[in-house]
Amino acid sequence: xxxxxxxxxxxxxxxxxxxxxxxxxxxxxxxxxxxxxxxxxxxxxxxxxxxxxxxxxxxxxxxxxxxxxxxxxxxxxxxxxxxxxxxxxxxxxxxxxxxxxxxxxxxxxxxxxxxxxxxxxxxxxxxxxxxxxxxxxxxxxxxxxxxxxxxxxxxxxxxxxxxxxxxxxxxxxxxxxxxxxxxxxxxxxxxxxxxxxxxxxxxxxxxxxxxxxxxxxxxxxxxxxxxxxxxxxxxxxxxxxxxxxxxxxxxxxxxxxxxxxxxxxxxxxxxxxxxxxxxxxxxxxxxxxxxxx
Length: 293
Ligand code: HBI
Ligand code: FE
Prior knowledge:
Number of strands: 7
Shape: globular
CATH architecture: Orthogonal Bundle
Order of helices and strands: HHHEHEHHHEEHHEHEHHEH
Bound molecules: 7,8-dihydrobiopterin, fe (iii) ion
CATH superfamily: Aromatic amino acid hydroxylase
Number of helices: 13
Structural class: alpha/beta
Largest sheet: 5 strands, mixed
Distance between the termini: 32 Å
Strand order of the largest sheet: 4-3-6-5-7
Helix content: 40-55%
Low-confidence stretches: none
Radius of gyration: 19 Å
Number of domains: 1
Strand content: 5-15%
Mean pLDDT: 95
């Protein structure tokens, strides 16, 4: 979560937006986008939900180079009434929610350097735009994102932003979906990462558990490595319906009296798709410990 007391840096508007300045991207930056795009476009077709591929096509995101937000927003506006606006980096929670509640998706404008192709900590334009924007062309997902923004503003009044943020994390960022032909990816944190796009579906290490609002609200998450548990939704329509029909106030009260669940724990009532071996996380932890001595 992001500090609430911060103010926008010089050059940013009161709502934290900045001009994209598309004409300032260098040839090398456009080629970095192309390299990332081509790799994911090759890997994803059988792995990602069809709604994602549909969004890429509808928004004409397969044109070469870093997308210009002006044209991207025009197409997105026609599809679902969303826009993409540039921000300097992470923005405070309330400003973030305010943008989503008004169907504006905030995106970083910088792109990772060539030597950071496979890993970087903070979200760049490839994560934000390639990862998040295609699904915003889907009506149910678009409404779900707006509902999340509205819910975020209300959660703040209950002191429950961290609980709600877990729902965002385990759906919008790292969600899986149960499809006729098996599990598919839809989380932006997965689909913008080559290695996690393979790990999240194929690796025996992580748990894959049916999505449940209360369960997810209690579950911690990792920001430093692949997830140890992924949650599986049935469809965007179901996710949207459940979010709109649930009264979150009593849920926040219940969750407040329950303990947090660890990133790898299995709880009573879980509907388990895969019980993970956690071999990846265990090996990683052992390697980190060796390194320290
Ligand atoms: N700001 N730019 C940006 N992008 C995010 O994904 C983001 C943010 N601020 C807050 C935030 N996410 C989350 O912590 C909220 O879901 C709570
Ligand atoms: Fe993201």
